[in-house]
Specification:
Blueprint (H helix, E strand, L loop, with lengths): L2 E2 H12 L11 E4 L4 E2 L2 E6 L2 H9 L4 E6 L11 H12 L3 E4 L2 H4 L6 H8 L3 E9 L2 E14 H12 L4 E3 L5 E8 L7 H6 L4 E4 L6 H8 L2 E4 L8 H14 L3 E3 L7
Parallel strand pairs: 4-5, 4-13, 5-6, 10-11, 11-12
Antiparallel strand pairs: 1-3, 2-6, 7-8, 8-10, 9-12
Protein backbone atom coordinates (compact mmCIF):
# COMPACT_ATOMS: atom_id res chain seq x y z
CA UNK A 1 0.00 0.00 0.00
CA UNK A 2 1.34 3.40 -0.98
CA UNK A 3 2.15 5.97 1.70
CA UNK A 4 2.30 9.71 1.08
CA UNK A 5 5.81 11.08 0.64
CA UNK A 6 4.99 13.89 3.06
CA UNK A 7 4.09 11.40 5.80
CA UNK A 8 7.34 9.47 5.39
CA UNK A 9 9.40 12.67 5.34
CA UNK A 10 7.71 14.05 8.49
CA UNK A 11 8.29 10.77 10.29
CA UNK A 12 11.99 10.67 9.33
CA UNK A 13 12.52 14.35 10.15
CA UNK A 14 11.06 13.90 13.62
CA UNK A 15 12.74 10.57 14.33
CA UNK A 16 16.17 11.87 13.33
CA UNK A 17 15.77 15.40 14.76
CA UNK A 18 17.35 16.81 11.62
CA UNK A 19 16.35 20.42 12.38
CA UNK A 20 18.27 20.54 15.67
CA UNK A 21 21.61 19.02 14.61
CA UNK A 22 24.09 21.30 12.79
CA UNK A 23 25.55 19.68 9.70
CA UNK A 24 27.21 20.47 6.39
CA UNK A 25 24.66 18.26 4.66
CA UNK A 26 21.29 19.58 3.58
CA UNK A 27 19.47 16.90 5.50
CA UNK A 28 15.92 15.96 4.65
CA UNK A 29 14.06 15.61 1.38
CA UNK A 30 16.44 16.75 -1.37
CA UNK A 31 14.44 15.65 -4.43
CA UNK A 32 10.70 15.03 -4.69
CA UNK A 33 10.23 12.51 -7.46
CA UNK A 34 6.79 11.23 -6.49
CA UNK A 35 3.94 12.15 -4.16
CA UNK A 36 3.72 8.60 -2.81
CA UNK A 37 6.09 5.90 -1.59
CA UNK A 38 5.63 2.26 -2.60
CA UNK A 39 9.11 0.85 -2.02
CA UNK A 40 12.11 2.25 -0.15
CA UNK A 41 15.74 1.98 -1.20
CA UNK A 42 18.54 2.68 1.28
CA UNK A 43 22.17 3.36 0.43
CA UNK A 44 25.33 5.05 1.65
CA UNK A 45 25.88 7.41 -1.28
CA UNK A 46 23.63 9.46 -3.51
CA UNK A 47 25.22 8.51 -6.83
CA UNK A 48 24.23 7.29 -10.29
CA UNK A 49 24.97 3.65 -9.44
CA UNK A 50 22.54 3.82 -6.52
CA UNK A 51 19.89 5.66 -8.55
CA UNK A 52 20.13 3.07 -11.33
CA UNK A 53 19.74 0.26 -8.80
CA UNK A 54 16.73 2.08 -7.36
CA UNK A 55 15.08 2.29 -10.77
CA UNK A 56 15.76 -1.38 -11.52
CA UNK A 57 14.41 -2.38 -8.10
CA UNK A 58 11.33 -0.16 -8.45
CA UNK A 59 12.25 1.93 -5.41
CA UNK A 60 10.54 5.33 -5.54
CA UNK A 61 11.98 6.71 -2.27
CA UNK A 62 15.72 6.49 -1.61
CA UNK A 63 17.41 7.29 1.71
CA UNK A 64 21.16 8.00 1.59
CA UNK A 65 23.80 8.98 4.12
CA UNK A 66 25.64 11.21 1.64
CA UNK A 67 23.20 13.24 -0.41
CA UNK A 68 23.55 15.36 -3.52
CA UNK A 69 23.34 18.73 -1.79
CA UNK A 70 25.64 20.17 0.88
CA UNK A 71 25.59 23.61 2.47
CA UNK A 72 27.62 26.13 0.51
CA UNK A 73 27.33 24.14 -2.71
CA UNK A 74 25.92 25.77 -5.81
CA UNK A 75 22.55 24.74 -7.18
CA UNK A 76 22.32 21.72 -9.46
CA UNK A 77 24.82 22.01 -12.30
CA UNK A 78 26.90 19.53 -14.26
CA UNK A 79 26.86 15.97 -12.92
CA UNK A 80 24.63 16.97 -10.01
CA UNK A 81 22.04 18.33 -12.43
CA UNK A 82 22.19 15.13 -14.47
CA UNK A 83 21.50 13.10 -11.34
CA UNK A 84 18.64 15.37 -10.27
CA UNK A 85 17.06 15.00 -13.71
CA UNK A 86 17.52 11.23 -13.61
CA UNK A 87 15.67 11.00 -10.31
CA UNK A 88 12.83 13.24 -11.45
CA UNK A 89 12.52 11.48 -14.81
CA UNK A 90 12.10 8.14 -13.03
CA UNK A 91 9.85 9.36 -10.21
CA UNK A 92 12.35 8.74 -7.43
CA UNK A 93 12.49 10.91 -4.30
CA UNK A 94 15.79 11.38 -2.49
CA UNK A 95 16.15 11.82 1.28
CA UNK A 96 19.59 12.51 2.83
CA UNK A 97 20.64 12.21 6.46
CA UNK A 98 24.26 12.63 7.52
CA UNK A 99 25.30 13.50 11.11
CA UNK A 100 21.84 12.88 12.60
CA UNK A 101 22.21 9.28 11.48
CA UNK A 102 25.79 8.91 12.68
CA UNK A 103 24.92 9.96 16.22
CA UNK A 104 21.39 8.62 16.66
CA UNK A 105 21.15 6.68 19.94
CA UNK A 106 19.21 3.74 18.44
CA UNK A 107 19.52 3.87 14.66
CA UNK A 108 22.94 5.43 14.26
CA UNK A 109 25.97 3.98 12.52
CA UNK A 110 28.09 4.29 15.65
CA UNK A 111 25.77 2.77 18.23
CA UNK A 112 25.14 -0.12 15.84
CA UNK A 113 28.89 -0.60 15.41
CA UNK A 114 29.24 -0.63 19.20
CA UNK A 115 26.54 -3.30 19.45
CA UNK A 116 28.12 -5.30 16.64
CA UNK A 117 31.40 -5.44 18.60
CA UNK A 118 29.65 -6.12 21.90
CA UNK A 119 30.97 -3.01 23.66
CA UNK A 120 29.99 -2.54 27.28
CA UNK A 121 29.93 0.60 29.41
CA UNK A 122 29.23 2.64 26.28
CA UNK A 123 29.77 6.41 26.53
CA UNK A 124 29.68 9.22 24.00
CA UNK A 125 32.94 9.92 22.16
CA UNK A 126 34.33 11.62 19.07
CA UNK A 127 33.37 15.31 18.97
CA UNK A 128 32.47 16.69 15.55
CA UNK A 129 30.67 19.97 14.81
CA UNK A 130 30.68 20.62 18.55
CA UNK A 131 29.05 17.39 19.68
CA UNK A 132 30.03 13.74 20.13
CA UNK A 133 28.92 11.52 17.27
CA UNK A 134 30.69 8.27 18.21
CA UNK A 135 30.98 5.96 21.19
CA UNK A 136 33.63 4.43 23.41
CA UNK A 137 33.47 1.36 25.60
CA UNK A 138 35.02 -1.88 26.75
CA UNK A 139 35.07 -5.26 25.02
CA UNK A 140 33.67 -8.15 27.06
CA UNK A 141 37.14 -9.71 27.08
CA UNK A 142 40.63 -8.70 26.04
CA UNK A 143 40.94 -9.29 22.31
CA UNK A 144 43.86 -9.47 19.93
CA UNK A 145 43.90 -6.55 17.51
CA UNK A 146 43.88 -8.78 14.46
CA UNK A 147 40.96 -10.76 15.94
CA UNK A 148 38.97 -7.53 16.27
CA UNK A 149 39.79 -6.72 12.65
CA UNK A 150 38.64 -10.16 11.50
CA UNK A 151 35.34 -9.72 13.30
CA UNK A 152 34.77 -6.39 11.55
CA UNK A 153 35.71 -7.93 8.22
CA UNK A 154 33.20 -10.74 8.67
CA UNK A 155 30.36 -8.60 10.00
CA UNK A 156 30.77 -5.70 7.55
CA UNK A 157 32.11 -7.59 4.53
CA UNK A 158 35.15 -5.34 4.47
CA UNK A 159 38.95 -5.44 4.50
CA UNK A 160 40.60 -3.70 7.44
CA UNK A 161 43.87 -1.79 7.51
CA UNK A 162 45.69 -1.88 10.85
CA UNK A 163 48.01 0.66 12.44
CA UNK A 164 49.35 -1.48 15.34
CA UNK A 165 51.10 1.00 17.61
CA UNK A 166 49.94 -0.09 21.08
CA UNK A 167 49.61 -3.40 22.90
CA UNK A 168 48.23 -6.16 20.71
CA UNK A 169 45.62 -7.28 23.24
CA UNK A 170 43.00 -4.58 23.57
CA UNK A 171 40.00 -3.98 25.80
CA UNK A 172 38.96 -0.34 25.35
CA UNK A 173 38.20 1.41 22.10
CA UNK A 174 36.50 4.38 20.48
CA UNK A 175 34.26 4.18 17.41
CA UNK A 176 33.57 6.85 14.80
CA UNK A 177 32.16 5.68 11.48
CA UNK A 178 33.31 7.06 8.14
CA UNK A 179 36.18 9.53 8.31
CA UNK A 180 36.66 9.73 12.07
CA UNK A 181 40.44 9.87 12.39
CA UNK A 182 40.23 13.39 13.88
CA UNK A 183 39.21 11.62 17.10
CA UNK A 184 42.63 9.99 17.46
CA UNK A 185 43.93 12.55 19.96
CA UNK A 186 40.75 12.23 22.01
CA UNK A 187 41.21 8.47 22.08
CA UNK A 188 44.76 8.99 23.32
CA UNK A 189 43.68 11.43 26.03
CA UNK A 190 41.07 8.95 27.24
CA UNK A 191 43.73 6.20 27.32
CA UNK A 192 41.89 3.97 24.88
CA UNK A 193 43.70 1.03 23.36
CA UNK A 194 42.29 1.49 19.88
CA UNK A 195 40.33 3.77 17.54
CA UNK A 196 38.04 2.13 15.00
CA UNK A 197 36.97 4.28 12.07
CA UNK A 198 36.44 4.02 8.33
CA UNK A 199 39.33 5.83 6.70
CA UNK A 200 42.16 8.21 7.54
CA UNK A 201 44.51 10.62 5.75
CA UNK A 202 48.18 9.78 5.19
CA UNK A 203 49.54 11.66 8.21
CA UNK A 204 47.49 9.64 10.71
CA UNK A 205 50.10 6.87 10.51
CA UNK A 206 52.75 9.07 12.10
CA UNK A 207 50.38 10.59 14.66
CA UNK A 208 49.14 7.18 15.79
CA UNK A 209 52.71 5.91 16.04
CA UNK A 210 53.83 8.86 18.18
CA UNK A 211 50.74 8.63 20.41
CA UNK A 212 51.23 4.87 20.68
CA UNK A 213 47.65 3.92 19.88
CA UNK A 214 46.15 1.25 17.63
CA UNK A 215 43.93 2.23 14.72
CA UNK A 216 41.61 -0.02 12.70
CA UNK A 217 40.42 1.38 9.37
CA UNK A 218 37.38 -0.68 8.37
CA UNK A 219 36.23 1.27 5.30
CA UNK A 220 34.31 4.53 5.07
CA UNK A 221 31.55 2.90 3.06
CA UNK A 222 31.29 -0.29 5.10
CA UNK A 223 31.12 1.44 8.50
CA UNK A 224 28.19 3.54 7.27
CA UNK A 225 25.91 0.82 5.93
CA UNK A 226 24.30 -0.02 9.28
CA UNK A 227 22.30 3.16 9.87
CA UNK A 228 20.54 3.29 6.52
CA UNK A 229 19.62 -0.40 6.81
CA UNK A 230 18.13 0.33 10.24
CA UNK A 231 16.04 3.14 8.71
CA UNK A 232 14.77 0.79 6.03
CA UNK A 233 13.68 -1.73 8.67
CA UNK A 234 12.04 1.05 10.68
CA UNK A 235 9.92 2.17 7.72
CA UNK A 236 8.85 -1.41 7.11
CA UNK A 237 7.73 -1.67 10.74
CA UNK A 238 6.00 1.73 10.68
CA UNK A 239 4.25 1.61 7.30
CA UNK A 240 4.63 -1.91 5.95
CA UNK A 241 6.75 -0.56 3.10
CA UNK A 242 9.24 -3.01 1.58
CA UNK A 243 12.84 -1.84 1.49
CA UNK A 244 16.01 -2.84 -0.32
CA UNK A 245 19.66 -2.06 0.44
CA UNK A 246 21.17 -0.61 -2.73
CA UNK A 247 24.75 -1.87 -2.59
CA UNK A 248 27.19 0.39 -4.46
CA UNK A 249 30.51 -0.04 -2.63
CA UNK A 250 33.54 2.19 -2.99
CA UNK A 251 37.19 1.23 -2.50
CA UNK A 252 37.63 3.82 0.27
Amino acid sequence: MAVSTNSVVRFLNNTLSIRTIPDSSRNGLQIRGSETVNKVGVAVDGCRDVFTLARKSRCDFVIVHHGLFWKGARDATGIRKQNVNYLKDHGISLYAVHLPLDLHANLGNNILLAQLLGLGGVKKFGRYHGRPIGYMGTLNKKTMLDELARKLEQKLNTKCTLLPFRKKKISTLGLVSGGGSASLSEAHLKRLDCLVTGEAPHEIHHLAKQLKINVVLAGHYETETLGVKALGKLLTEKYGLPYKFLHAPTII
